[in-house]
Amino acid sequence: QSALTQPASVSGSPGQSITISCTGTNSDVGGCNCVSWYQQHPGKAPKLMIYDVSNRPSGASNRFSGSKSGNTASLTISGLQAEDEADYYCSSYTTSSTLYVFGTGTKVTVL
Amino acid sequence: QVQLQESGPGLVKPSQTLSLTCTVSGDSISSVNYYWSWIRQPAGKGLEWIARIYTSGGTNYSPSLKSRVTISVDRSKNQFSLNLSSVTAADTAVYYCASGGLTHPFDYWGQGILVTVSS
Q: Which pLDDT score is estimated for B50?
């Protein structure tokens, strides 16, 4: 089971919106609404930002939103802020024996 | 809210067994229908799911590590544990414990523990 594909880096200016993609297959991203997104600051544990494609847990900013089309899920950060500078990972349940697969990770830079 | 805390040795010798424990607070490990997982992250690299155990005791393992991994739960201590045998330098990583539901299994995370495999 290969990792889900994410762009290595995405950047934007404060106030702008950016979108991070997460591409998989019919066995994972495309197979169910089981995609989650995590934010990870340096030296810290990942933090859940979106689950089940588009649901936001309590404690996550409403500037974060998720969607999915076919085998690609997306995370959009609107009104970009300096504190959003971090690594972002997607994950998905998969019907393969691997069970759960993570994305390759995207470094978000606020210019 | 569930809180998780990893503990264990930070240094393990090659060929030995890495043993880590995750202590759960904020709720009973037996009372919630959660999956309890271990995940690792080598320095500068991405996340890798290792294993999970369900409240009932059912287990699943990553195929790439299955032959070396055991996950277990100690309900009396509200803890779950990871054993990884025959470690090599490639097993050096930050190890996280996490919990969540079936489709979103990593809602809550521990702070992580760095384990270095070296003689």
A: 97
Neighbours of A82 (CB within 10 A): 7
* Alpha carbon separation from B15 to A99, B2, B52, B61, B66 (Å, rounded): 27, 34, 23, 20, 16
Cβ atoms of residues A66 and A48 within 8 Å: no
Query: What is the distance between the alpha carbons of residues B58 and B60, in angstroms, rounded to a whole number?
Result: 7
Distance from CA of B63 to the nearest CA of A (A): 6
pLDDT in tens, A37-49: 999 999 999 999 9
The pLDDT tens digits of the residues spanning B29-53 come to 887 788 999 999 999 999 999 999 9
User: Per the CB < 8 Å rule, is B46 touching A103?
Assistant: yes
Count of pairs with CB atoms under 8 A, one residue in A, one in B: 63
pLDDT band for B55, please (50, 70, 90 cuts).
Answer: confident
Residues of B in contact with A32 (CB under 8 A): 103
Q: What gap in Å lies between CA A73 and CA A92, rounded to an integer?
A: 10
Instruction: Determine the distance in angstroms separating the CA of A35 from the nearest CA of chain B, rounded to an integer.
Output: 8
CA B64 to chain A, closest CA, distance in angstroms equals: 8
| Residue B99 and residue B37 in contact, taking contact as beta carbons nearer than 8 Å | yes
CB B105 within 8 A of CB B52: yes
B82 near B73, Cβ under 8 Å?
A: no
What are B85's two structure tokens?
A: 């045998």
Q: How far apart are CA B28 and CA B104, in angstroms?
A: 19
